[in-house]
Design the sequence.
């Protein structure tokens, strides 16, 4: 935001305040409209307005609840500490007198020696409990009462020490009874002091609970007030934001309406400094990009149709047809009736699936059957050198594939692999599921294979998307790969593995789809049917 723009926005802000201050109306709606206009007049970005509104609402909604929760937690901790101390004090009060009195009587009566007695263990246990209680309380008066308990406990321990000294000096029974009576008196005092502390803590608990209730009510009232304030502010902010957003969006809508009428010269203008204005300023750049994308798409469609035409020209090869007809004539002259029927049936099936009513997409089963017909014809022509197998997973036969894909791969395997091997060989066609989303088709032969240099050349051809690289056959696998990528996308296509004198395997990976896709109209030269009326049927 420039300094000039910020200054202008601030002046408009002051002008709004002055204009509204001059109003004499007292209607709540007038005040609401004033606040709305005031909020909308701040020349900030929409994002800044939304974030500011959100922060204010969150603060109003959350601050009171947070403070209230902290207050309740503080009172709750204090209450729990008091209850814990009361419980601990009650355990002391109920055990200190009988435990000490009984243990000291056993010592005086001679049932146990002073050294073997548990009197000091009992006293240490009480002392540790009282010390813990002092750490667990924040009341000064409670500290005073706990100090009194410790002092009483110290006095009791002194009487016990005195009993130990007397017994060590072989005191009389009367002397021991006198000290025992002092110990009994000290435990009674100890019990009374502890009970006094418990009574104090119980009274403090009632007061703490009352303070907690009063504080909770106050915080609840304040929370309600702030919630209503947050709701009112939300209404004002929403109304203001909608007002500041609607106007530029309406302008943008008008521009897009103009563009839909093929007017790509329309411009979006605005005086505001916000995201919608930035969107409008980027709109003209987007229109230019759209023009570039349209030109690129038209060029891509042209390349796609050219690839289709080259595929058809290669698949419906006049030489293949002439050679097949010559074979049929030779078989007929030789009276090989069964072979004539077989090869004519295969040729008919080959052309029927090739045309496929002008559809670009057929099932994998149909494509494999077409390839089988082609191999059958070639096997009858090259009886001594060609054998083939087709291994297809039945679960993939109903998935669709771009037609005229497999046969060029089989043709390359025959002419560049099997025919160059003296003893002939075998071609294997496989189709299976690679994963849930992908299918894999392989054309493998045990022909002559390729040298390392030739294999590198073929792999370079697969990576060439320009369509300029072709094999000597006139229809290279590079063109097949390009058709696959144009239809399926860059991740899919062909890969080659080969070793000289061993054989070659071409692998095709395509997505698993079942929908039928029909021919599209050539955006430049018309339909493919118009370009090759004798080779393709009408639009499917």
Sequence:
């Amino acid at each position: 935001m420039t300094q000039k723009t910020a200054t202008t926005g601030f002046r408009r802000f002051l002008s709004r305040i002055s204009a509204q201050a001059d109003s004499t109306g007292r209607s709540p709606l007038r005040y609401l409209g004033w606040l709305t206009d005031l909020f909308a007049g701040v020349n900030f970005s929409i994002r800044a307005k939304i974030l500011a509104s959100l922060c204010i609402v969150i603060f109003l909604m959350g601050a009171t609840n947070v403070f209230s929760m902290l207050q309740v937690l503080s009172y709750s901790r204090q209450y729990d500490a008091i209850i814990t101390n009361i419980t601990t004090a009650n355990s002391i009060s109920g055990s200190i007198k009988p435990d000490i009195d009984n243990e000291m009587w056993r010592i005086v009566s001679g049932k146990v020696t002073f050294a073997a007695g548990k009197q000091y263990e009992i006293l240490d246990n009480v002392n540790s409990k009282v010390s813990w209680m002092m750490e667990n309380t924040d009341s000064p008066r409670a500290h005073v009462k706990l100090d009194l308990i410790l002092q009483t406990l110290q006095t009791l321990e002194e009487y016990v020490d005195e009993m130990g000294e007397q017994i060590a000096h072989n005191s009389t029974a009367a002397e021991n009874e006198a000290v025992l009576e002092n110990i009994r008196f000290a435990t009674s005092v100890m019990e009374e002091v502890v009970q006094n502390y418990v009574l104090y803590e119980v009274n403090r608990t009632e007061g703490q609970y009352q303070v907690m209730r009063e504080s909770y009510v106050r915080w609840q009232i304040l929370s309600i007030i702030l919630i209503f304030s947050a709701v009112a502010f939300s209404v004002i902010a929403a109304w203001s934001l909608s007002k500041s957003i609607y106007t530029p969006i309406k302008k943008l809508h008008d521009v897009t309406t103009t563009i839909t009428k093929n007017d790509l010269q329309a411009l979006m203008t605005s005086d505001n400094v916000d995201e919608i204005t930035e969107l409008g300023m980027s709109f003209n750049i987007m229109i230019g990009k759209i023009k570039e994308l349209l030109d690129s798409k038209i060029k891509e469609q042209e390349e796609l149709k050219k690839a289709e035409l080259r595929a058809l020209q290669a698949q419906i090869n006049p030489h293949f047809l002439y050679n097949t007809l010559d074979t049929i004539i030779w078989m007929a002259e030789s009276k090989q009736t069964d072979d004539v029927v077989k090869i004519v049936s295969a040729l008919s099936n080959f052309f029927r699936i090739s045309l496929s009513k002008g559809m670009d997409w057929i099932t994998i089963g149909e494509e494999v059957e077409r390839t089988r017909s082609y191999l059958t014809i070639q096997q009858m022509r090259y009886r001594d050198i060609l054998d083939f197998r087709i291994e297809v997973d039945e679960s993939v036969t109903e998935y669709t594939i771009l037609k005229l894909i497999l046969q060029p791969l089989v043709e390359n395997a025959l002419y560049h692999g099997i025919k160059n091997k003296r003893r002939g060989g075998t071609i294997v066609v496989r189709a299976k599921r690679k994963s849930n989303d992908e299918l894999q088709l392989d054309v493998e032969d045990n022909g002559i294979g390729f040298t390392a240099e030739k294999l590198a050349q073929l792999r370079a051809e697969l990576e060439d998307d320009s369509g300029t690289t072709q094999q000597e056959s006139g229809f290279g696998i590079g063109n097949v790969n390009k058709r696959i990528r144009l239809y399926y996308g860059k991740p899919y296509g062909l890969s080659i593995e080969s070793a000289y004198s061993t054989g070659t395997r071409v692998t095709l990976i395509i997505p698993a789809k079942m929908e039928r896709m029909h021919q599209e109209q050539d955006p430049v030269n018309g339909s493919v049917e118009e370009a090759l009326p004798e080779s393709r049927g009408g639009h499917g």
User: Anything to note?
Assistant: Confidence is low (pLDDT under 50) at residues 1-29, 469-475, 517-540.
